[in-house]
Amino acid sequence: MTSELPIGILDSGFGGLSVARAVRARFPGERILFAADCAYAPYGDRDESYIMERLERIIGYLTDRNVKAIVFACNTATAVGVKTFRERLSIPIIGIEPAVFPAVRHTRQGVVGVLATTTTIRSRKYAEVRERALEWAAVSRPMKVEVLDMPCPGLMECVERGDFGSEKLEALLEKYVDPLARAGADEIVLGCTHYPFLANAISRHAKGAHLIDPAPAVAEQLGRRLADLDLLAPASPDRPADAGAALDEFRATGADPGRESVLRSLWGKDARLLPLSA
């Protein structure tokens, strides 16, 4: 395995681009192979057997392409499958989880809101993260801290269709975000990688609240793992600092012109969407 190989990043849809964006910003010399399972999304309201079946296919594609690491840029996929694939594969597998601990650490009002998919909130992995954060807060914070979980069916789909300001989106935000704001949440965890693309709209419904996006932390963890294995793309005088960007590749199940348009709105006008057979 060489450092010139791409980093595989997967998601049920285009939300994982928020993580890919953080990876691109932190490591401009790396190549990204992004795999979105758009035709079979959303994962967030599916049962675990369905999600595992899809992950088998997407990860099979990425390993066939000889990626040097795989980033699960999907909270639901991480909650359901990351442990299995870490045990099975020898390359670094980086997951993502709702950033409850930073929220609990920094809340001033003692109220944290978590926006996530139904499957993420119901998962054992999230329950463990939540419990550890609250146990820490019980002995380390001067006030009582509570975490309010908010499943958000339908919100991910808004990003998938490029909807960042419709009446339907506003109705969903009123349903999911407004109750957290009324409860006094001053830290709101974006527990799905699609939600950073709705940050401005969410902030309008939770004025003054701090939104937490875990993507930069995921990029840092990826960098640590690659550095440990001497797999970071090399820097040299004859290699442009942003050499990886020109080689970025975006694939999706169900790729079509409409989805390519959404990709370009999220990543850039020159992005091209290629089909993913998985």
TrEMBL record:
Pathway: Cell wall biogenesis; peptidoglycan biosynthesis. The keyword Isomerase applies. GO terms for molecular function: glutamate racemase activity. It is an enzyme of class 5 (isomerase). PROSITE patterns: ASP_GLU_RACEMASE_2. SUPFAM superfamilies: Aspartate/glutamate racemase (SSF53681). The active site is at C74, C192. One of its GO terms (biological process) is peptidoglycan biosynthetic process. This is Glutamate racemase. It comes from Sutterella seckii.
